Amino acid sequence: MHKDIATPLRTKEILGKYGFSFKKSLGQNFLIDPNILRNITEFAGLSKDTAAIEIGPGIGALTEHLARTSGKVVAFEIDQRLIPILGDTLSPYDNVKIINEDVLEADVKAIIDEEFAGYEDIMVVANLPYYVTTPIILKLLMERLPIRGICVMLQKEVGARISAKPGTKEYGSLSIAIQYYTEAEMVMTVPKTVFMPQPNVDSAVIRLTKREKPPVDVIDEDFFFTVTRSSFAQRRKTILNNLTSQLPSGKEKKEYILEALSNSGVEPTRRGETLSIKEFGALSDALYPHFN
Ligand code: SAM
Fold this sequence. Notes:
alpha/beta; Rossmann fold; Helicase, Ruva Protein, domain 3; 2 domains; seven-stranded mixed beta sheet; two-stranded antiparallel ribbon; 12 helices; elongated; binds S-adenosylmethionine; RNA-binding; cytoplasm; Ribosomal RNA small subunit methyltransferase A
């Protein structure tokens, strides 16, 4: 086994050798604690039959743990300066492919088809760049990739919103969007001291396991997401007031909304944060005929 990249000493050595300077704008906070990396790969449930997708390998701290514990790794790295460094640090591993691309622009589905033929178990595992956590997770879920799930480090506050249950102050349209596709768990919180440089916020690891099918069967998914977003537009407002101000205008709009609330068994004075995904599903289907 080779010496870990993710120790303070080795990381400093690599950064010094290449004269690398961190770009804050790319969310570059590298992990310098091998124990945390072991925890992440364990939570991800990897084996040699698993193919792993990583976003933002940095200098390869997590990538090498993925290379050791899974069958094959494909990693997307936006920063071109890191590509030669990764070529060096990951040279002991022959099951890693680095793609120098912005993951938000990449055709991930085509890359899975091309690189992971024969793998039935595919996991996304990453220490995400924090400036773009939510768009990355939503992209991976909405493109309906053939993955088992996503196990990633992110800002603790975003992790709390993603895994929040109804009735809590963190629960909102992000919790619903993600829990529509997955079962979400926050599996670990992580101190700032395991990063170089240290981020300003606390971190956590979340595990998202894709559902076989959504927890509610809705007429139109896009409309369901419009209704959930509208319901949380102003958290202190009632669901009736939020929907009335957010849904497209038209004659008798308020009457339609009141009727739909009544048909789906939701009191108009409730707030969005008290509704379960199932209640939002019923409400969105009741509203659908009047707004489409
Ligand atoms: N995995 C490494 C680690 O744990 O030490 C680095 C993680 S660092 C938090 C995030 C990495 O994502 C950086 O290497 C950064 O350059 C890269 N990155 C930022 N935006 C990206 C994007 N849109 N697509 C791909 N990689 C990105």
